[in-house]
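so i finally got all the pieces together for this one. its two components total, 942 residues if u count the protein bits. some of the lines might not be protein, just check the labels. i wanna see the whole assembly predicted at once instead of chain by chain like last time, that was a mess tbh
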Amino acid sequence: MEKLKLLNERIVSRVNANLREFDFDTGRFISNAIEYDKLSRFYCFYGITSHHPIDFYFKHASMAGSYFLGKCAVNQSIIYKSDIRGDELKRKGDIMDQDNPLPLVEDETIVVNSSLLYKTLVHSNSHNIETPEEFTIRNTVSSHYANIHGSTIEGCFLGPFSTIDLMNLHSCIVGEFSYLQAGEFFHKKIDPGVIHIETKDFRFQYRYRKEEIDKYIGVNESSQPRGLIQQFVRGKEPEFERLFKVVDLPPIQAPESSAVNRYAVIKGDTRIGENVLISQGAYLEDAHMGDGSNAQENTYIIHSHLIGMNITAHGGKIINSEIGQKTFVGFNSFLFGKQNAKLTVGKGCIVMPHTIIDIECPLQIPENHIIWGYITCEEDLENNTISIEKLNAIDGKQTIGKMIFSGQGKIFINGFKNRIEQILVANGAYCDHDEDCRGHAQDDQQISFNTLQPYRSGKDEGLYPFIRIRP
Amino acid sequence: MEKLKLLNERIVSRVNANLREFDFDTGRFISNAIEYDKLSRFYCFYGITSHHPIDFYFKHASMAGSYFLGKCAVNQSIIYKSDIRGDELKRKGDIMDQDNPLPLVEDETIVVNSSLLYKTLVHSNSHNIETPEEFTIRNTVSSHYANIHGSTIEGCFLGPFSTIDLMNLHSCIVGEFSYLQAGEFFHKKIDPGVIHIETKDFRFQYRYRKEEIDKYIGVNESSQPRGLIQQFVRGKEPEFERLFKVVDLPPIQAPESSAVNRYAVIKGDTRIGENVLISQGAYLEDAHMGDGSNAQENTYIIHSHLIGMNITAHGGKIINSEIGQKTFVGFNSFLFGKQNAKLTVGKGCIVMPHTIIDIECPLQIPENHIIWGYITCEEDLENNTISIEKLNAIDGKQTIGKMIFSGQGKIFINGFKNRIEQILVANGAYCDHDEDCRGHAQDDQQISFNTLQPYRSGKDEGLYPFIRIRP
């Protein structure tokens, strides 16, 4: 274990050096989160398909319980129960920046250096035009159920259930349950529960109250997550353990055009439509997945019906709900209907990332609305939703409840709608058995997993040997 | 599959080129043995421990269902359900040849090139002083349950259940159930059922009758094995399949000083003593394994008692038998006692490799005897055993039944006894919790397995990507 502990210390000191202006010690989080014996007990996976370029490069690192797909290079890092999914990485010859149309000189690779990722999701489709061949995570500590989505991250600490979406972050601390999609940040400390989306054309801002954060996803004095969402997620963890104990699971009933990952939990009366993608780490119980819908990593869909063409972004939780046609549910949203208090979201809606809906009475949200923030009853809808039509018309600043929007609503809406279409296409939602429209739902079916093991004893215990896998 | 089929053709043409003087087509064996769909269905293993140097190099090859340990490099080859176990490879600095005491310049590696190994066991402890850093298998096709034991093999075809032990073989065909340990052979065709052990000091020869070979391990017109031993082995294969379907098996009750590989079948009232080694692919049912005994790969120990310090060499089968203290059972021996016809072998005996004892009445073999050939009843003992004392005294030529011995009996006996001691030491039979006497039984306990996967579809189907694993 000596070498692993040394590696841990090295990562902490590097990240702390990046964050020294904030007098912040990532060691507090790590020392209470990491159970060293688990690092030497769990294997990791590398997915092999004939559709995704293979290149797995691993050196002086620990990667217990983690899942890798696509081109990944990891060095001097600890990746614990994380998903590193590189299936949207750009390829050699792709043109990323239309203003400067130079093709990529080689396939893009996710490169993780001197970082500790704890139950973190890293998804590709990176946006940083400065380094098109490398999607970089460096000198960073990231905690429970954080999402790093196509974002360059250097010298940062990401709190539990935070999301960094399509941006660059340098030497920042991100509080728990905050969502950022705002171009580039340097040397900032972002409070917990902040939703901040910003481009040159608009800004969308929302901030949870401290007591709300404390109730759903605060951290305790040991820097560990606590609250309702954390409890919910922890309660489901044992269900995933079974998936790791058997080699071959009985296949899940699903159409040929759909992919159900073997590391997803599928329970009860769950039905899978055409062109559906169920990713690893998804949890489905009595879930009706309409045609073209998907459940991404760390999503939970329970006693719910997704009508069709629904995206459930990483970490989205949908319980006792009906989600209308092409309604989008953003990262880490927590739609918490009850058995006697069903949530119905109309078609064409956008549930913004990190939205919490926790109701005790049935609630209907009309179609074509944008939904954000904290909603517990019908009265909250006024301050937490707006029709797409109305938002489209905004040009300037408008405050609705605690949400502040400024800029051009039309560009905000168009940006979202385009992104939803891109995700549906990438996931293969429109495939209809057409080879040209293949997406993850089709390409991820014939996947097999290399399971890779750490040293189980000696001074290298918990570390993995050097591993390279390529075509 | 195209690439895999092309690889297969390339291997066949290379081996045939080496064997053209015999007008021998290895393609006949291969075309009837290989089921292509299985090559893309089974994963392979690479064992990771902190005691064995790690270096796994795999390029343009298929290795379905195979097991690797230690330093292995495989190129342009098909390794199907084989064991490649490199835990006795020499290390950098070791001196192999006392007459020419140059230390190895690097760790020894098993190197397999342009070969097809089908359910073959490759074990290290190689002897070829010409290439101390490389244990070579090249341009070779090897069939069901063949043993390649520390032998350099080039341009050969090895028939089912044949054993090549500590020698070099170039452009040879080895018939089914033949055992060779004879220095170096070039361009020879060895008939089925030949036992040939030869050094400059002695020669031991035995040959089974054709009808005996046909009964126990002949080949049919499709070049596939048939007969009693093949049936016996096939009948047990389903028991092994279960081991591949689960990730964690309940641990087998065994003392701390013993290792039971998780890919061994352990059934019934099986008891494991101290310093015992049970290798992958071993099958134990109602087996009492006395202290310091071992069951190597592809051994079967059923309703039997091994008193202690017993070696059961690769492929040995012991049924309804009691094996005395420090009695050695050689490669592929078939000791087939029956419920009402128990076989008892006294202490200090050497059951020569490829011995068949198939009895219908109880049989006792006295202690300190050498045992060989085909024994069905007490009368056969006269022509198939000799006391160690008597053999020790031979200096010249002596024929006993069909066995011809010439040379110095003392050197033959001493050679065998030394080798038995070496194996016991290597396996950790004398460990007694003493760190200096650790062997496989102790070092193989903390083993974990990387499972590596082939491409499941496309033109690469059944092949594996390039894989390198090293410290």
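Chain A has two domains: 2-17+42-208+447-469, 229-443.
The domain at 2-17+42-208+447-469 of chain A is CATH 2.160.10.10 (UDP N-Acetylglucosamine Acyltransferase; domain 1).
anyway lmk what u think
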